[in-house]
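Rotation project, supervised by the postdoc (A.L.). Task for the rotation student: set up a whole-complex structure prediction and record inputs and outputs verbatim in this book. Inputs entered:
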Amino acid sequence: MTTIVITGLGATTPLGGDVPSTWEAMLAGRSGVRQIQAEWAAELPVRIAGQVLVDPSERIDRVKARRLDRSTQLALIAAQEAWEDAGFTWEHPGAVDPQRLIVSVASGIGGLHSLLDNWDTHKEKGYRRVSPFTIPMLMANAPAANVGLAVGAKAGVHAPVSACASSNEAISLAIDRLKLGRADIAVVGGTESTIHPLPIAAFAQMQALSKRNDEPERASRPWDRGRDGFVLAEGAAVLVVETLEHALARGARIYATLAGSGITSDSHDIVQPEPSGEGQAGAVLKALADSGLSASDIKHVNAHGTSTPQGDLTEAQSIKMALGTGPIVTSTKSMTGHLLGGAGSLETLACVLALRDRLVPPTINLDDPEPGLPIDIAATVRELPAGDIAAVNNSFGFGGHNVAVIVTSEHATR
Amino acid sequence: MATTEEIRAKLAELVNDIAGTPVEKVQLDKSFVDDLDVDSLAMVEIIVGCEEAFSVTIPDEESKNLVTVGDAVAYIEAHQA
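Outputs recorded:
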């Protein structure tokens, strides 16, 4: 049985331009949701979002940036931090055997800015002004492919698309590939950048977004009775994962074990979760089986918890169904907003740090919890017990995708 | 009518903007692809940039013949309005 460990972390989020600043803000219970200052926001019903705190232009060279969609730029920033955190040099392929290195980096939607900006150009100035880079910028595998170029991955570059479950699915895919022996090391994660009038209008028309425009920091409030939808956010999170054998051979620092994952599909509705929570619970149960763990090993759940009226209730039921009432549950989306395809990997990364520091970040804005919730939600920072413990990260996506990933404190460098 | 030097200077600006190549490297004898870090897609952007800057039309089949900066300058000189 192959053991997989996590050896590098990287992120750029509404809370910070890297992992330490993001994690510090999570433990402090800070919100990264702000009003959108762009002029176009004025005429929209939703004028708030989780915008990255550090603009990618501060990190990516101008000439390079003009052929990369913003979602890919964010992915590259997170991947560089993770790759260097794992002890490698960025853009110097060959540090690991390229034939044993894979990339699995997802985006839920793809290069939306590139697509829409070039369509605007086409309409205003004609086809001749459309950028020849449009296709390699908008394709949903562009973040993965560009990360693959930077690290020199030759054993496969993957970009599974499953809406808001995409980056958890990317992690799951890499787990399977490593367990099958197809590679020794993987760069995994997800990214998204969709803060643009069209997706905001479209999500708002679905009645999916919070309209708490005057109190952006209080808008994302999972399980609170005053919740009125999710908050759109952008950002990326990337992890370096490898077989225990590979990590030990190169003397890598180990954060945690990536124990396993589980995937189910609701086959119920294109956007609504199956209301009993059976499909979601099924993903967690499969992840437990994949990890060789039992429900009592799980001490913490980073929930999908998007702050939608129905979604939060269904998930509370499904967590109880799969794991009982023991784990301390949180939704870090209360602070970051919803990174869509970037959410799963960011929240798996948060689980890793929660296990390391034995601290569960709070679900902020839980002022008036739904009555009778069957789970233990951390409204403030909570401590986790000592010893070898495990955490589940849930991610669900439009289309009925349910993906649970489990990390444990086993093999962590003390 | 732009002079040879004005056209070269504007081309240098475009190449710098699109490919990041230092403007002083953009001389008439230099090949876009071999000397100036311009790949095939960046070349398309440079061609379109020239069309915009000099009000010329450079058909796709013509653009294949513009190998050096000098080729492009000569084409623009011959075709500008």
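Student's summary: The mean pLDDT of chain B is 95.
Supervisor addendum: Residues 4-79 of chain B form a domain with the Non-ribosomal Peptide Synthetase Peptidyl Carrier Protein; Chain A fold (CATH 1.10.1200.10).
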